[in-house]
Amino acid sequence: MGKTSPITDLIVSYLNSRAKILSSPDTIIFFDKEQIINQINNSWSWYKMSNFNKLKTAEKKLKKRNISYFYYTQDELNSINEIYKFNNGKAKFNELYFKLDDYNETRIRYYTYDNFIRYSEDYNYDFFVYLFSFFGLKSMRWSYTNVHNTEKNSDKNANIGVKDLKSEFQYSTNETSNKSIGIEGCKNFENNGSSFYFDSCERRAFWYSYCKKEVDDIVKEILNRSNRYSYEYYKNNESLQIRLDNRLRGAKQICYEISNNTHHKVIITKMIKISNKFASIGIKLNSTNVDTKCYTKKYSINFWDVQDMELTTLENILGNTQHYGYNIDMYRAHERYEELSNNHILSLDEQLEILQEKIRIKKLKTNRYSKRQFNSNDLNDDFTNYSLRENSIKDNIDSL
């Protein structure tokens, strides 16, 4: 770096005091400390102080927008604790990262905007599937509308004069393109029964001889089985709690719509403006092309019929002796299973009769129009009749 001035030493000390401190903020960006020091150190003394003041102005703007910033060397950036992942790897300078708040203290994940939107939605979907599969989830269908905006930003510095003794002005350009896509999908799930549902639902099954359990205790028990999903995420996600409550009150279908939060897109836009203004001192975004996606997703969630699920649940209980330790009236459980099973058999018999009738009718039609039943004389008769009709029409025309 060569000989430094007192002002440079002050700036270096200032930057060092704001390095190597990483908590878990919601939004974070890393700046190259060495690059900033070099740019300031290569200026005239009076201009160094001006750049230092610019740096503090930029910091105020970042704080105002709740963007946490750190000044690191490349080695310091590479040595960040392994529990922090950035786009599933190492952090990079001048990238704006958003925290995926899944309340996992052993793995803290950050993503750039597009990855954050995708992984947040994927995580929310996977969490929903995991939790509700224990409460009789039958199928999920969704439609997805995505508006893809590409915003191209660039900043320009025009210099007049010689190095460090110059007049300077700055301007930025902005170009935006839009593209929309639509996607539909579905996923089906087997009926595996659900003792958790009957432990906590509003409708009490009469073969239970105890009061229902607290939903929170049930959810804790389920989520404690997973290393990926946490109870804290559930407790901080009101929409999940509402939908689970609806299910436990007997809902067979839940429909809802979600859109990505514009909060993160606003932060991106603000960071672009800061970058356009302070890029010359190293406070900038890594890329001038920022893709922002706006989406709307509509979900239709279906659950297994309670009686179908009850039958499978009873089969699981009666077929596994470890369930006998539960506070269940086993006599009534056998009695209820027999009742449901007989009803199911009657239903299948009715369906079989309907299917057999359809088969019978189909066979009659097949035999009626089969080639084996086809008479070649019928074709000759049809041809003769056609010829007679044609001649008759011709005679009528000639008589006119």
Structural commentary:
- With 400 residues, this protein is an alpha+beta fold.
- It folds into two domains: 1-111, no CATH class; 113-328, no CATH class.
- The protein contains 13 helices and nine strands.
- It has helices at residues 6-16, 33-41, 45-64, 74-78, 113-132, 195-200, 215-223, 231-235, 238-248, 263-278, 306-318, 330-368, 376-398; strands at 27-32, 68-72, 84-86, 97-100, 108-111, 137-162, 165-188, 253-259, 289-303.
- The chain has a five-stranded mixed beta sheet with strand order 2-1-4-5-3. A four-stranded antiparallel beta sheet has the order 7-6-9-8.
- The longest helix is centred in the C-terminal third of the chain and has 39 residues, at 330-368.
Percentage of residues in helical conformation: 40-55%
Integer count of domains: 2
- Residue windows where pLDDT falls under 50 for at least 5 positions: 154-178
Say what oligomer this is: single chain
β-strand number: 9
Instruction: Give the SSE string.
Output: HEHHEHEEEHEEHHHHEHEHHH
Major beta-sheet overview: 5 strands, mixed
- Spatially, the strands of the biggest sheet line up as 2-1-4-5-3
* Gross geometry: elongated
Provide a count of the helices. 13
The gyration radius over C-alpha positions equals: 35 Å
What portion of the residues fall into strands of 2 or more residues? 15-25%
What distance separates the N and C termini? 113 Å
- What structural category do the secondary elements indicate? alpha+beta
Determine the mean pLDDT: 78
